[in-house]
Amino acid sequence: MKLWIRIAVIAAHLAVIGVILGTCRPEGCRRGRGAAAGAPEVGGAGDGKTGPEQSLPDTPGEGGVARAPTDATAGKVSYSESFFQRGTRRLPADLEAATAACRTGVLVDWTARSVLWGKGENKPVPVASLTKMMTVLLLMEDVASRSDLDLDTRIAVTKEAAAIGGRQVWLDPRETFSVEDLLRCVLIHSGNDAAYLVAQTLEGSEAAFVERMNRRARELGLTTAKFLNSHGLPDEATRQENVASAIELAFLAGQLLDYPAVVERSGTRLSFLEPRIDGKKTQLLNTNKLVGRVAGVNGMKTGYTNNSGYCLTATCERNRRQAVVVVTGCDRGTARDDLAAKLLEWLYATP
């Protein structure tokens, strides 16, 4: 009798152990330990893409797009007044005089995180198509973090995007292009219609995308940047424009230097968009005239409206030393380009 009692007790213990093991499969146990250590349940320390066995959250983001937490922006350093050191060198007298051509500007040794020259660099000013740097940053962050998006993803042109004026690549609603095509159109040709299509693609509507632009600016510590659209044209109703300070634009350009795809395309002097619906191809000529003219210049964006004047953010690398120059409010494109070129040459002429 005692033997049967012992057998029953052992069987009961084995049943309990079986239930426990059945509810703690290997992946479940790993997730539990990760959560206890503070690790996220979705996404990882790799490229930030959502794996096939990971599910998106039920709560949709802007534009009705469900978003999973990712590490695409993890580890990004935010801008603050202490981000850059202040250099002690002074511009030579002739170069100092030449800076009268711009409204605001800044020259940054990005490698040393040092500001070598500034003029009203903390003042928010209209930035025209320099806006597109934020548009491209959000695109690249999504390419890095979303499993359904890469440079080969095909995007159908919308009627709304095709209707955007100003500088454009004349998108047609009958056409479909890759994300890589749109990236070239934005960075090389500064196409407003392409930037708008990027905004629609990522967030479902440009209004939702603009909300994200401003939210991301705050996350990055950019307090002067305020965006009304994805491309930089004046608002049709209010004529207000996107604004930012030169120092924050330099910081934004520095973030884009982390993406080889951006550097490659913004440093391309000439490319073509093809095939088009009419069987032809559209020439994409870089609006940044320093590309191919000034050694090491590999980006980043130009801009112009009547209110902003001629603006430029140029990035450069020589001997593994990276630099960023921003000039805004110039009355002529040639004056803008000449000033930026001289500032870069001065930076690299001295250690």
Characterise this structure.
- With 351 residues, the chain is of the alpha+beta class.
- The protein has one domain (85-349): DD-peptidase/beta-lactamase superfamily (Beta-lactamase).
- The protein is built from eleven helices and twelve strands.
- It has helices at 2-22, 26-36, 93-98, 132-145, 159-162, 179-187, 192-203, 206-219, 246-256, 260-266, 333-349; strands at residues 85-86, 104-109, 114-119, 125-126, 154-156, 176-178, 243-244, 270-273, 282-285, 297-305, 309-318, 321-330.
- A six-stranded mixed β-sheet has the order 1-3-2-12-11-10, sandwiched between helices. It has a two-stranded antiparallel ribbon with strand order 4-7.
- Strand 10 (297-305) and strand 11 (309-318) form a beta hairpin.
- The longest helix has 21 residues, at 2-22.
- Residues 1-5 and 16-71 have low confidence and may be disordered.
Give a quick precis of the structure.
The chain has helices spanning 2-22, 26-36, 93-98, 132-145, 159-162, 179-187, 192-203, 206-219, 246-256, 260-266, 333-349, and strands at 85-86, 104-109, 114-119, 125-126, 154-156, 176-178, 243-244, 270-273, 282-285, 297-305, 309-318, 321-330. By secondary structure, it is of the alpha+beta class.
